[in-house]
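PROTEIN–LIGAND DATA SHEET

This sheet pairs a single protein chain with one bound small molecule, 2-acetamido-2-deoxy-beta-D-glucopyranose, given as SMILES. Inputs appear in the order they were entered. The predicted three-dimensional arrangement of chain and ligand is reported afterwards as a token string under its own label.
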Amino acid sequence: MMRNFILVSVFLFFGLVLAGESSQTVSVFAWPIGSSTPQQLAQITYGYPSLNYSIKSYKSPSLSDASDVVRVGFYRSGKEGAWSGVATSSVNFGSDRQKKLRLHLDAHGDVYHVGFSATPLIGKGDGSPQTEELKVELVEQQPGPQPHLNKPVVVNAEGKVDEGKEPEKSFLQK
Ligand SMILES: *[C@@H]1O[C@H](CO)[C@@H](O)[C@H](O)[C@H]1NC(C)=O
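PREDICTION REPORTED AS:
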């Protein structure tokens, strides 16, 4: 029993080492327009490539004006002072909203973009506590071939485009 546990632990350990598992922490800020400084919104530690995470801290920002626009973002690692983020309405930080942070990771597991969305919390109406205030989603850069954005549309032999081409051709040839 103990032996199995040790073996499994050893395999897990080397598995993670071989996979290049790394742990990273990112601080996400809320920065109201018109405010000179950002406020720390959340600190999230995540494992890459296993994509597990834990929210180390979460603090609802103090906002003066309900109609304010609030930037949500982070500072890119390595590039000093390079802010990257999105903008949202301060209404979305209300306690009646389910907030969701989306962390987009590059091929190295570093955050390159953050997203933020909020949806109204729907209470169960039975007085039970509502869902957690902040949700986190880690989005990995999709591996594999890039979409062929500049490639012309390919139509198969039976495609209607081919049939449509003929009259056009003959029209131009006239
Ligand atoms: C992710 O999982 C690994 C392996 O179980 C663990 O060592 C690590 O602490 C976890 N990371 C987080 C942020 O929960």
